[in-house]
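FAQ: What does the model actually see?

It sees only this:
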Amino acid sequence: MSDGDPAAFDVAWGRFASWLSVHCPVDHASLRSPASAKEIRALEAQLGFPLHPQLRALLERHNGVMKRPEPDNYHAGAFLPLGHRLSGTDLIAQQYESMKDGLAEIITAGWPEEDLRGHAHQWVEFARPNDGGTAFIDHRPGPTYGHVFEMGIGSGDIEGTKWASSLAKLFDQLATSLETGEPFRHYRPTSCELPSGHHCLTWDIGNRTEGDGIQNWPPPRRPDPPVRLLAIRPGQGPKLGRLIGGSAPLTDPVASLETGVPIPPLHTSGVIVKDSAGCEDTTR
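And it is asked to produce this:
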């Protein structure tokens, strides 16, 4: 089993998702139902090339995460370093359209095609934060095919940082960090306490204080009643909570209107979770 195989991704993702389910169930509950074969075919048709097998495997498990899994926070689901949230086929297509509309031309100007910045039209996003950045998989055939990069495009950073040689390697390293408390690169897993009492995963660049290790996290609280989306007026988002061991409260960065939709279920909690169409998610 090579590092680039879908089977390698399944093993790594299984470790990562299992940890979320046990320790941060509200994060786990934010995972959406699988993308349909039709949605994946439509995305590949738009891209003009097939998805990397491990990205396809991720979408076949979960078509991104919900925007607002719980009324009193936006943080749940932003469980990757730098607050990245898994993108579904719709957001991946949206980002690729931005590339086609001229962003790729701006990024690639003056760079040879073999350079990462020289073939932005072959990047495929799999996650994004709230600041205009992107985490993507290089789809250019060759030695960097399948490599995972993060780039802060919104801040003008277009050099890119390599996170891993594959999605499988990324989630394997993240799972190891969660299991041991050791950093992934310079990001350490940290518990964020929300007003509801739930605890979400975030990644802290600062130093740990004594007694702030992952083994000392509070016990998880299962979402009950079922997690729900909430209508939020622009600029009126609630405070999101605080980092365990930190002092500054997190605040809601979102200025968009969300639609109240009941969300339904959690893998191991016994709560019934449904997608936005009202269909029960039997895979979770």
